[in-house]
Amino acid sequence: MNLQVWPRSLWSLPLLLSACVSAPSIPETTWHRLPAAADVAPISHPSAVPVAVHRFEADGLYADQALLYALDAKAQQLRAYHYHQWIDPPGTLLQRRWIGVLQQAQAASQVVERSQAGSEAWQLRGRIERWERAPTAAGDWQVQVALELRLQRGRDMPLLRKHYSEVQTANDASLEASVQAMGEALDRIQAAFLADLTPLLATESPQ
Q: Could you tell me which residues come within 8 angstroms of residue 33 by beta carbon, excluding any fewer than 6 positions away?
């Protein structure tokens, strides 16, 4: 009886080996960087008080490193790409980007991370409210970015507190194009923020 069963088991061996060979492989994870920020001109009246930039706050999916996409144009339903990640959490990416832009704009005597500044410094805080790509009715893809930015010193009332949002259509359906569009949307938000900040710093004297 064993002599009859053994050859039959051998017949199934090629099928098992074929199934193992044809099994799909796990995709490699791709890590994405934000594009470099656009150049900005120095502001006319920099602050004599240092500016400390905090890591941007984010809740839920927006705190995760995965790139996000919406299932609908209004972004009411979101999903995360499993194998496409930002190189750092979005809050860290935006903190570093704002430090670089404010340094290039020469907005203050020093622009540093929060841990490197004293209590007398201006504190710049941000919150991520939208940070995804979404399909359009025309079949394109666009990125939607919305941030709340607040500049405050000690327990004083904020010198600036404002919501900024931008929508940018990607050049094509690829993730790379959406990442590039994300950088363009951020450039416009940063330009609007600097335009709001410049006259405020001109009228604000150190305490």
A: 86, 87, 179
* pTM summary value: 0.85
Residue closest to 89 by CA, chosen among 51, 45, 56: 56
The structural domains of the chain, ordered by start, are 45-203 (3.40.50.10610)
With beta carbons less than 8 A apart as the criterion, state whether 122 and 151 touch: yes
φ, ψ of residue 137 to 5 degrees: the values are -65, -25
Confidence at residue 24, expressed as pLDDT on a 0 to 100 scale: 67
Residue 147: strand pairing partners: 128, 164
Average pLDDT over the chain, rounded to an integer: 89
The full length of the chain comes to: 207
Of residues 36 and 20, the one with the higher pLDDT is: 36
| Half-sphere exposure (Cβ direction) of 184: Cα atoms closer than 13 Å | 14
